[in-house]
Fold these 3 entries.
Entry 1:
Amino acid sequence: SLLRYTESGLNPYLSVRFESQFIDQTDPRKDFTLNPLQFRESVGISRTLVKNDEREWIVRLGFALNQSLRDFYIYDGTADPIVDMVESETATSGGIELIFDYTSQYFDDRVDYVGQLRLYQPLIDSNKSDIEDLDAATLIAAGLDEDLADYTTELDIDFKNTFTTSITSALNVEVVVHWVYDKYDSTVPVLVDDEGVIENPEAAQIAIRKKGQLKQTMSIGLAHRF
């Protein structure tokens, strides 16, 4: 949800977002569940660079806060694992966000394009200090990079492109190309026991995504415009 005041050249805005997933890759059972729960609040200023009948381009600059709540699982590694849910863990981060929203029409208004480029530079992350307390040998023994703490404050990039066209008055085709670069998933804190051993190395390994993630989808559906 985005609330934006548009009566001035520089428009203040307030945004809130909730995001989750139905299947958590850290859950060995792969059950249907909402995990993790992610919340984001941001505030800042925006400006409309272009606005006419064919296109609109808006840029936003602000400060964002992120909170997450994630459940972790343990199992004995057998063919029929015994799974227990450990206590829920929270993580927070905050930083500067820069967002470009662009909409346009092409081919005599037959194709609608909606694009959003989001750049987020974390300045603080609750995971970083916890990881910095671990020595390199502990991280390497768990199969993790010794400079893992620096991953938590790397620049995040989220670039989504949506193309929509109408085959008939009621039949639409939509193509989405979505690329995300998040070097370390900040919703996954590194859990350490009293003896200094990392309890969730598998989850931390999954959270490292050096090459980014790409999703491409095409959908066909019925639509009616009122």
Entry 2:
Amino acid sequence: MALVRWDPARELDAFQGDMNRLFDGFFGRRDAGGSGYGSRRWVPAMDLVETDDSLILRADLPGVRREDVSIEVKDGVLTVAGERRVDHEEKREGYHRVERSFGRFLRSLELPKGVEAESVNASMEEGVLEVRIPKPAESKATRIEVGGEKRTIEHQPAEERELAAAGSDSES
């Protein structure tokens, strides 16, 4: 068994390396350029609210310009993408602390079937993006009677439709 001499400086270096990895994992890795500004991944906070006639997506996008945001609806998925640009120079002078995250983001949300992409609209005010997604029209059951006439059943519970159908059968 070999004896290893204890070196407190080596232990502190190892501890510092472990702490750097921990913080880099939590806060994001520092950029390779050595500027010291964190290049943490930025994911904007979003809320999805349902009203009687629409879904409303609100996203906090402080410091993001309208022209740096894109919204797309494709194959039933709403995608909001954009970029918050660094608003300071790469010089370290004058900055005591940089905690705000910058960079590109992409968030996707699956929409209910039947949403028409053309009816989705968006606005942005005071750093909050609001995307309004009108709910699709509910599909209505269609009753087909022998003899040919079609009628649409207006939001009638299944039990009532069955009772109505049974009542019309007994009248015959």
Entry 3:
Amino acid sequence: MADLSEDAVQQLYSAPPDEFMQRRGELADQARKNGDPAAAQAISKLRKPTVGAWLVNALVHADPSIIEKLTDLGERMRAAQESLDAGKLRELSTERRKLVDKLSSDAFKLSGRKDPPPALRDEVGGTFEAAIADEDVASRLGRLQRPEQWSGFGFLPTGTPQLTVVRGGRDDKPAKKAAEKPKVSAAEKRKRERALAAAREAFDKAQATFDDANHSERALTDQVRQLTKKLAKMQDQLDDARAELEQTRKDVNAARAGRREARSALDRAEREAET
């Protein structure tokens, strides 16, 4: 992008979303007047951010060093995971939680939001976590249109990585001989069998309930994902339509002024012809 459009990105993605459309039109007009149609076109294509994305963008514009802090922590977490250093991973996970909490709090404080809803907190915190896990996300902070969420492989920013220790081999000490089980009476044995059958029946019911709920969750998750994609696409189309409408209104005003001037010229010509 040209310098003018880079400056437009800075202004648009740090300003409140409700000012985006008007400000974008003003900046595009300014670029055209300055003889930079490429910048004007690039500015007109910039998308309005959601509130969650704007909160992150505004904080990053206020403090660009945040990107370096997030990428540095991500590199250290990946290095710790590759070396299977469980202690270091626990330490870095604590550091991650503190950093994400601080950045989220700073973002809400900067925007004057004292009591943001939980969904908005999740969007902002999830975006910072995704930036730690993915350098590409971190590089786009400051011009995000939608919140980000980490869904890849490797360490999970929302939890502490777990290492599984497999025991066995030549160095293991011989297992102690299991103690002999005490003898039980026939009555006690029947009692335990009835308890086992009841427990199995209860588990089967619980498993069936879980399977139904899990199936519903997957179906609804897929439905929400599809609707979210459609909503994002419709939002982009709406932004384009509004931008085109705004430009068309300007064209109508310019044409109206031209018609008025032409009408005045015609009236003068007719009067002169009659004399």
